[in-house]
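Case study B.
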Amino acid sequence: MIEVFSVAKRFGDVRALDGVSFTAADGRITGLLGPNGAGKSTCLRILSTVLRPDRGSARIGGVDVVAEPLRARRLMGVLPHGSGLYPHLTARENIEYYGRLHGLRERALATRVDALLARLNLGAIADRKAKGFSQGERTKVALARALVHEPRHLLLDEPTSGLDVMAARELREWLRSLRDDGCCVLLSSHVMQEVEALVDDLVIIAGGRIAASGTPAELAVRYPERSLEDIFVSAVEAAAR
Amino acid sequence: MSAAWTVCRKELLDNARDRRTLFSAFVFGPLLGPVLFAVLINVMVAQTVSTAESPIEVPIVGSELAPNLVEHLEARGIEVAPDHGLEKFADAADAVQNGRHDAVLLIDPDYAERFSAGETARVTLVYDRSNTRAGSRVQRIRGAVSSYAQQLGTLKLIARGVDPDVLSTVMLDELDVSTAAGRSVVLLGMLTYFLLLATLVGGFYLAIDSTAGERERRSLEPLLTTPVERSSLLLGKMAATTIYMLLALALTLVGFVVTLGYVSLEPLGMSSGFGPGAALAAFAVLVPFAPLGAALMTLVASFTKSYKEAQTYLTLVLLVPTLPLVFATMLNVKPTGALMWIPSLRQHLLVTALVRQDPIPFAYVAQSATATLAAAAVLGFVAMRLYERERVLG
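Model:
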């Protein structure tokens, strides 16, 4: 479970987050939806302990990310915006590096990496350097890298951006199977349709505040006879006023 | 600690696969010094030897007027250049100015008359002082002419029944006490410069790639989400940089031992004294410099916003350690305890002393190593503090 309590963060004069609270439950995919610059990435960066909040707190699996960042990091896998692979290393080496940093022993690591490569259909490119990978391949390797220590929480920043239809579809199936395993999946997106097809819970964020949240069905009840896109637009416009 | 080792190993492997990094660290850096050095020494040896002994040809205008002088010059290896086509002072000045001749000797038209009359006969030497190559030739001509004049003067005094010794009231004796190895120090002083430079170049790209490069490629952010302290990450990166620097240093020293083995310094009256033993000692003296350089380069590269910017700043960093060396060479500084506190200068002084085969107090070596490592620790600590800030993400 991921819990965020009135988190605020500013960069100079820009108020990136202004009292954001929400929870993402285990065994569900939660979508953080908002226009560009809404604060989605800042929120995920605070959760992944790369940034510290000015106010408020956040917990990953009950561990406070500010007080115990190292413990919190062990409980989550992070897929940042842009894969951030090392071009001179092979797919396997990229994944192994993170496994070692997570403290996996060599034998357990080898088994785990082989399993991930097989499960993500990466066998063919396992020992090729990341330099020549397609965007889809890069995202998959980065996902395998985020999962190397078998985290129960997964944070993904715009995971499908830049992917073609087939790769995006494959990734969605992946995230669903992780959810079915009981993982808590939190992803950000600015693409309405994608979120609609994938998530169980929605958190709409705009201007550093939560504009609306709930399951797509609940939101549809609250805003009757309107498509999710209309809800998104009106929520964002309301926040801008 | 094991996390730092993981990071270090990954950086070593990652950079070993980058051709540019490998080339600059282990080919360009280690070869530049020894090759440049060998060429330089060869040129110097060739020049010194040739101008000191080989006969030279000098255009002498009016040589027929002074056959005895010409004979005296020829006996000292200064021969009359045939067909020089010069007739007057203006021709000679012109020829020297545009570089056709290094020096021209003009015998005055009334040389013979004045000579037989017992008056001072005039000879003019035309040369260009800014032409350094001509310096030793001019010196030789000047010496030969004045020795001729002195010889004749002595003869004249004797003919008049005067003891020639009345002219020499004070006699200056010169005694050069420099050892053969000591004389080569001017040249070998540059050795430390090349060694320090190659050491820095060895870690140059790794320091950039592991900091500014990591950020630019967006691999820093996920790395910071692994359960490893940022200080451990940075420690691993600096360790990898240090290892590359030490490798580059070792290769450069091997290069120097090989090239200095081929280049003969004997004609210059010098012995290089740079065998495998001296190279090993130099390595030991220079080892503490590697972590200092690695910490400095990592720190500077961490401040920069991009790979390009890091390259620009680090190029300046490459110059920093050479500044104390320039002063030391200019002022001919010898090692003292106080100077052992100045980074890079202490390494220079110790290596120079090694090459001179001067005794080196162990206290200096220990002090130098301690001070260098302490400076490395301080810079490393500052770099780690820098990584704790959020702005490190850029």
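Strands of chain A lie at 2-11, 14-24, 29-33, 55-60, 63-64, 76-79, 153-157, 184-189, 201-206, 209-214. The remaining cases will be described in the next quarterly update.
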